[in-house]
């Protein structure tokens, strides 16, 4: 399933296609973003609204337009 940068896409479990660039991701340590190999203008982001998930809080995980997404929703810290 290809992602269009003009829309927000939620994540889903699908059959893996290792050759599909929209199913492979790269971490950009300079900006702290996770982007698809196929399109570096899209970032893995969390939704603006949170909801209760038992003793925790949960947010929707989406692919969003990097340029239009606030940094607090798209910046990740990868621990090694």
Written account of the structure:
Helix content is 5%, strand content 40%. The chain is mainly β and 80 residues long. The protein has one domain (9-74). Strands 1-5-4 form a 3-stranded antiparallel β-sheet, with no helix packed on it. A hairpin with a 4-residue loop joins strand 2 and strand 3 (33-36). It starts with 8 loop residues before the first strand and ends in a 6-residue tail after the last helix. The relative contact order is 0.25.
The span between the termini is 30 Å
Helix content: under 10%
Largest sheet: 3 strands, antiparallel
For the secondary structure, the number of strands is 5
Mean pLDDT score: 86
- Structure classification: mainly beta
Q: Radius of gyration, rounded?
A: 13 Å
* Number of distinct helices: 1
Listing every helix as H and every strand as E from the N terminus to the C terminus, the arrangement reads: EEEEEH
The order of strands across the largest sheet is 1-5-4
Shape: globular
Strand percentage lies at 35-45%
Number of domains: 1
> Ranges with pLDDT <50 over ≥5 residues?
none
